[in-house]
Design goal:
This protein is mostly helical. It has 10 helices and no strands.
Length: 179
């Protein structure tokens, strides 16, 4: 990494910009495509994430990166790409992100499969804040407002909840009519 000019003093955006530049110049080593994709997912840079993914076996990534790629594809309306990636890596990738699987199933029109993943999420003793917010949104839109409200209120005090998560929670509270 150091010889590529990427080190700890770089922020994620700077590191990704450097990797993109090297890739565009044809000088990015194969071994750097995993961090390239990870940084692109972290930055919500769909184009570069999927460009880098073309060079790496999806099984080389941590589940969080794969579910991030699936979320990026879904946000871009590319259900086919999201489903293809999910098939390539298998359902185990969703063990810590069941709501990503539920969102994919809903996008594919498979309500029964979505419900299965929602039930798994509801049964988990702890969810990452993004998953908890997604579950609360689902509950709020499926006549489970009391559960959604309890879940959202608990997330406000969760130390893992980021400022970005709080912004999402604010819009959820508006949806729920909580002041």
């Amino acid at each position: 990494k150091e010889q590529l000019g990427i080190d700890a003093k770089f922020g994620s955006a700077q590191a990704l910009a450097r990797l993109v530049k090297l890739d565009n110049e044809g000088r990015l080593p194969q071994s750097m495509y995993v961090p390239y994709v990870e940084l692109a997912v972290e930055s919500s840079d769909r184009d570069h994430a999927f460009k880098g993914l073309e060079r790496v076996n999806p099984n080389a990534f941590q589940p969080a990166t794969i579910t991030g790629l699936i979320e990026l594809a879904l946000m871009g309306g590319d259900v086919t790409r999201a489903a293809s990636l999910a098939r390539a890596v298998g359902d185990d990738v969703f063990l810590e992100a069941p709501m990503v699987a539920a969102e994919l199933a809903l996008a594919q029109g498979d309500k029964a499969r979505a419900e299965m993943w929602v039930r798994r999420a509801q049964a988990m003793p702890s969810l990452a804040p993004r998953e908890g917010i997604a579950l609360a949104r689902y509950e709020a839109s499926h006549d489970q407002k009391a559960s959604a409200r309890r879940r959202a209120l608990a997330l406000v005090d969760n130390p893992r909840t980021t400022d970005g998560d709080l912004s999402s929670l604010a819009s959820l509270f508006i949806q729920l009519g909580v002041s």
